[in-house]
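Margin note: ligand = 3-iodo-tyrosine.
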Amino acid sequence: SGGVDGNFVAPLPAESTRLTLHTMTTWTPLHNQPYHPIPYHPNRIPLAEALAESAAFRRRMDERRTVRMFSPDPVPEQLVLDAIAVANTAPSGAHQQPWTFVLVEDPQVRARIREAAEAEERISYRGRLGEEWLSALRPLGTDEHKPHLTDAPYLLVVFQQRFGLRPDGTTYKHYYGDESVGIAVGMLLTALHLAGLAALTHTPSPMKFLTEVLGRPRNEKAFAVIPIGYPAADAVVPDLVRKSMDQVLVRIRSDATH
Ligand code: IYR
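Resulting structure:
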């Protein structure tokens, strides 16, 4: 049943291990283990290089858009596996990594997910959301039709492990699950974008049907459904403007004079 097995995440290419990352080679729950620090001193990136790379990254990330119209073109599997491996590097509460990624290609399973999601969304869009929510969504042009659930070559369903489940059925607490999985999904979306892929963070509500359709264990609840693919040739997106730095950044400056 549950758990991400070690083979699911492709191993790091050997040449990128320029740091000592760990002394253990397989994951074991960290809690109840002694504190065991190891040195961490990556080389500082020369300032000119850091500035150039961070500016380029910022521009690149500003090109990311949520896409709802996908091309049926196949996607190289390794790009998706790499992005999931990136998500798996996310920081998490007590390093519990409380996530499971279910990568669905099977068209029949995707069709069942689409059917169940559209049934819930129909109820939502025909009133359950309420007038304020519906008018907030109007500029996005979303509705109860979710063709991307079957059009995109991959459907990644991210589950949050609400608690840890040992093979013997006993459980242990997970901490900051929402925050941890949210950060991991952010890193996943970043990695997919850098690989030239488009994605959509879809949150059908309620999502309980996903636990059933995908046969997940009782400690997991769906967090997001993420169709992944290339944008359709005729894809369009809402004409959005992002908040300016002035609108999102508050600075409390040092008043020390140098
Ligand atoms: N979950 C619904 C509605 C929806 C809600 C928000 I907030 C969005 O930003 C977009 C959609 C759906 O997936 O259509």
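The CA atoms of residues 214 and 246 lie 44 Å apart.
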